[in-house]
Amino acid sequence: MTEVQLQEFKLEPDSELRFEVESKNEKVVLEVKSGYAELFGTELVKGKPYEFHTGAKVAVFTWHGCTVELRGRTEVSYIAKETPMVVYLNVHAALEQQRVAAEQENTRGPVTMVVGPGDVGKSTLTRILLNYAVRMGRRPIFVELDVGQGHISVPGTVGALLVERPASIEEGFSQQAPLVYHFGHKSPGENLELYNTIVSRLAEVIAERCENNKKASTSGVIINTCGWVKGAGYKVLTHAAQAFEVDVILVLDNERLYNELKRDMPKFVKVVYLPKSGGVVERSSTQRAEARDARIREYFYGKRTPYYPHSFDVKFSDLKIYKVGAPSLPDSCMPLGMRAEDALTKLVSVWPAPALAHRLLAVSFAAGPDDHVLHCNLAGFVCVTAVDPERQTLTILSPQPRPLPATVLLLSDLQYMDNH
Ligand code: ADP
């Protein structure tokens, strides 16, 4: 029998309550009873219940002290007095100074990239800095380059959002009109050429948009990255730094990476070492896979606010599906003027087959396969829930009702089992 547990915590100024919800189908409700508290930079409203579900790893921080109540079963819950929040607040203050200068001098605000190995709190720091900026009345751009555990659209993409209000406690940043580009794998290593191509494209489009939006431009950009920091992973990071012309790199918890970047970045790039929070929880590969799955489920079904996706059949003959990347040949076998790497960003036609079951398909805004497909933003995703070779149809789960737009569909490696 499960009894609902009620726990009350009194937090002193500059401390945080950390808790995790682990057991399946568990729900924990958090409420601030008195004082002020924030969750990864978003203020909590006193007396309002917030729900957290399986997999949540949370810290409620207070600058001034507060009393917090938790209802439900938590795996861990404790108060920590040692946190790096003052250091993170100082980083925010320094970025804010640069934004003020940008406003006065009519230049661009700080472009900041957060880097570090997996599970050091990169996404959390990104969220905190964006929230603090927007709470100061700024409109920063959030760029997500983590194709494995990203927070924009579904995994296997890179994307950007203009942040106009703090992240919702339960649902994160509002996903209205994101810019999203197709990658189709969960690690940049699966196609470095394609990854660098779309990162450059995203940087280009953001630079263009900033030219037309002074407020966003002076507010700056905060970029979250993958936790792959060695070898080719390091090259991917330096390529992104160059593409976005970053001003600041925040390195979490990795001295080697800090020193390498200090050595390799031009002098005008400020490379700053930051401690990680003792609260950041390491995730196993199973937990990462579950988190990816949960993001895809949220994409189709919503989180707190439910969405109602549509399911319908589409004829094979009405579909134009492509995958990106032809098998690469040695340079000596390539036509004159083409490099072997060029094959990695080529579109290859895919005929519908049972192997497509459960795969995600990106719906491109491109008019046709010759329309610079990789440079086109995505309209969204559908999931193939069934393939019927006899009737020559696919059953599709889609956020939009039928028909499927008659455009290019890009095959992703990512799968989702729809058992709703
Ligand atoms: P990274 O982006 O480096 O992989 P995340 O920011 O996603 O790391 O953090 C890993 C996990 O730790 C997340 O589930 C996050 O909610 C949790 N977390 C981060 N900071 C804290 C903290 N101070 N207390 C408790 N959990 C935290």
Give a verbal description of the structure:
By secondary structure, the protein is α+β, with helices and mostly antiparallel strands. Helix content is 24%, strand content 30%. It is built from 7 helices and 23 strands. It has helices at 85-105, 122-135, 192-211, 214-219, 232-243, 255-264, 285-301, and strands at 6-11, 15-20, 27-35, 38-39, 42-43, 50-53, 57-62, 66-71, 76-80, 111-115, 141-144, 157-162, 179-182, 221-224, 248-252, 270-274, 310-315, 320-324, 347-350, 359-364, 378-388, 393-398, 408-415. The strands form 4 sheets. It has a 7-stranded mixed beta sheet, sandwiched between helices. The chain has a 7-stranded mixed beta sheet with strand order 17-22-21-20-23-18-19, with no helix packed on it. Strand 15 (248-252), helix 6 (255-264) and strand 16 form a beta-alpha-beta unit. The longest helix is centred in the N-terminal third of the chain and has 21 residues, at 85-105. The mean pLDDT is 93.
